[in-house]
Amino acid sequence: MLGEEHPSSWSEAMTQAILTRRPPSTVSSAAAAIAAGCRGTYTPRQRASVAELLLRRALRAGLWLPAELVATEPGRYRSRTVHVDRESGITIRVLAWRRGQHTPIHGHIAWCVIGVYAGSERELRYTTSGAGGDTRLHPSGDHVMHAGQTAVLLPPDDVHEVTCLTDDAVSIHIYGSALEPDEPSMRMEYDRSAVL
Predict the structure, then answer these.
(1) Do 114 and 150 meet the contact criterion of CB atoms below 8 Å apart?
(2) Fewest beta carbons within 10 Å, which of 31, 43, 96, 132?
């Protein structure tokens, strides 16, 4: 997690401006605030830091998601695109899970911020070695995220898998790329046999 830290090139005024904004209470107001914050930053790390800070504040202030976004399905987790902002280059999706549902092991096409809205999720992170068909995955992190917690993934250190640990869980994912509603956010999926 990037936490409250910001790159040294940020001005104190920029940090204060973000921290003094009223936390958004709806998904549309949260999306607008995150997109606006990402428009004013320059590097992927800065944009991810702003997105994480604003998402964490919204989650902890009682962000509300409507029932149609948090509904789960029995077969697999469900991903819904709720906002695409081409100017800031971000996509926001809500993922709804049932106990045991999980992603494949994957990396992303851009930076990603994850915020847990409800329930708990387990994230396993991996580092990679080798290339192409000889890629090997090395476990590098195992942590459980609960409602209100956030995490940041920055390529190339963004290979992970996520599993729902509670009866239901909902998480909000912000990607540093303007994606079409059904466009995948995963740049690469890895076979479990690659894990050492």
Answers:
(1) yes
(2) 132
